[in-house]
């Protein structure tokens, strides 16, 4: 076929796609009306995951599975906005990795608002100034984010979803600077990024002073104001703040990723592939931790995470944060919860939600 004929066929397909997208939008609006009457949440992460998985499994090509998910993720986000325009708070400023997690979960059509601290993200959702919040919970290299765990002790919010993003760090600088940051007088970075890139920085910029700031995005902002400064930040920050990438993927561990949580007032429906997060306080006695773990083994529940934090009420007393595979409504999980209620000082379910693939 000639180029002109091929383009004519593409134009016809585009019109068909446009009509189908609008038809999808009308159906979504009808679903939104039903959800409003029944007081169901507009955000349904399990349903969205099911859509992406089904489309990728039945994709005949030539589009890659990643391309299919990318296209339909934006379609889902835009159509969700027809149900309700969600207001989402995230640990800011713009271009942080939490911002990228918020974009992936809610898309650019949502009202995304950068918030200064993790406690403030919780506060905005609790006071209904935001429908949902996005916060980091742990990094595969550096471990748990304690500020997030501590907030769950007193918060009434639930975990609604989780997602895991691969994290790559970049050395950013003035467009006129030499590659690799040669001649830099100062490095701006966040303490987590510093920990994840320490060996690279010691090897390539050993004598350059390091200044820690509140976020990787703030590091990029500071460096963008000085021709003699560089920043350890993200590719998105380079785009937003007009900086050159002087060195790419400088993290010390190549398979570096961060897990994020979406928090809200109501947890989503059961999907069959769920995770439940618990907070447990146990009595200070010999064998208490062993006894706490026994019910999980007895009912064959897979524990994917356990972390301890001080109660801050009495010296050497701890709260344990536990993640297990399963939903709080599953019979084995319910049996474990009943046993834990008898043997623990207190137990709190932080949420049951679709687990990330």
What would the keywords be for this entry?
single chain; 357 residues; alpha/beta; 6-stranded mixed beta sheet; 5-stranded mixed beta sheet; 15 strands
Give an account of the 3D structure.
With 357 residues, this protein is an alpha/beta fold. Helices cover 41% and strands 26% of the residues. Strands 1, 2, 3, 4, 5 and 11 form a six-stranded mixed beta sheet that branches. β1 (87-91), α4 and β2 form a beta-alpha-beta unit. α1 crosses α3, α2 packs antiparallel against α3 and α10 (288-298) packs antiparallel against α11. It is globular. The two termini are 42 Å apart.
Into which percent range does the helicity of residues fall? 40-55%
How much of the polypeptide forms β-strand, as a percent range? Answer: 25-35%
Q: Could you give the order of the helices and strands?
A: HHHEHEHEEHEEEHEHEHEEEHEEHE
Number of strands: 15
SSE order and pairing:
Blueprint (H helix, E strand, L loop, with lengths): L2 H36 L6 H13 L7 H19 L3 E5 L5 H10 L4 E5 L2 H9 L5 E8 L3 E2 L1 H6 L6 E9 L3 E4 L12 E4 L1 H14 L5 E3 L3 H9 L4 E5 L1 H6 L3 E4 L9 E8 L9 E9 L5 H11 L4 E8 L7 E8 L5 H13 E11 L3
Parallel strand pairs: 1-2, 1-3, 7-8, 7-9
Antiparallel strand pairs: 3-4, 3-11, 5-11, 6-9, 6-10, 12-14, 12-15, 13-14
Helix pairs in contact: 1-3, 2-3, 10-11
Structure summarized in a few sentences:
By secondary structure, the chain is an alpha/beta fold. It is built from eleven helices and 15 strands. The chain has helices at 3-38, 45-57, 65-83, 97-106, 118-126, 146-151, 191-204, 216-224, 235-240, 288-298, 331-343; strands spanning 87-91, 111-115, 132-139, 143-144, 158-166, 170-173, 186-189, 210-212, 229-233, 244-247, 257-264, 274-282, 303-310, 318-325, 344-354.
């Amino acid at each position: 076929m000639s180029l002109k004929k091929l383009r004519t066929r593409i134009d016809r397909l585009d019109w068909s796609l446009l009509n189908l997208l609008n038809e999808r939008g009308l159906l979504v609006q009808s679903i939104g009306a039903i959800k409003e009457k029944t007081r169901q949440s507009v955000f349904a992460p399990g349903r969205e995951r099911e859509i992406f998985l089904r489309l990728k499994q039945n994709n005949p090509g030539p589009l890659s599975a990643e391309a299919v998910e990318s296209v339909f993720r934006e379609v889902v986000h835009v159509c969700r906005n027809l149900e309700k325009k969600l207001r989402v708070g995230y640990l800011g400023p713009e271009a942080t990795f939490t911002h990228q997690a918020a974009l992936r979960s809610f898309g650019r059509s949502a009202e995304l608002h950068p918030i200064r601290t993790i406690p403030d993200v919780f506060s905005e959702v609790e006071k209904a100034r935001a429908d949902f919040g996005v916060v980091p919970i742990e990094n595969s290299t550096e471990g748990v984010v304690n500020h997030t765990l501590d907030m769950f002790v007193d918060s009434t919010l639930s975990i609604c979803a989780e997602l895991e993003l691969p994290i790559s760090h970049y050395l950013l600088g003035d467009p006129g600077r030499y590659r690799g940051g040669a001649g830099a007088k100062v490095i701006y970075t966040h303490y987590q990024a510093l920990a994840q890139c320490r060996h690279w920085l010691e090897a390539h910029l050993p004598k350059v002073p390091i200044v820690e700031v509140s976020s990787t995005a703030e590091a990029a902002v500071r460096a963008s104001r000085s021709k003699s400064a560089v920043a350890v930040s993200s590719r998105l920050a380079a785009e937003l703040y007009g900086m050159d990438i002087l060195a790419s993927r400088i993290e010390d561990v190549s398979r570096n990723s961060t897990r994020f949580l979406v928090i809200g007032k109501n947890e989503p429906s059961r999907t069959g592939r769920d995770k439940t997060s618990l907070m447990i306080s146990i009595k200070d006695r010999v064998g208490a931790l062993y006894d706490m773990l026994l019910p999980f083994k007895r009912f064959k529940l897979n524990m994917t995470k356990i972390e301890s934090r001080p109660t801050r009420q009495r010296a050497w007393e701890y709260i344990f944060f536990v993640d297990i595979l399963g939903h709080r409504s599953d019979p084995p999980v319910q049996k474990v919860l009943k046993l834990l209620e008898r043997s623990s000082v207190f137990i709190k379910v932080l949420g049951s939600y679709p687990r990330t693939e």
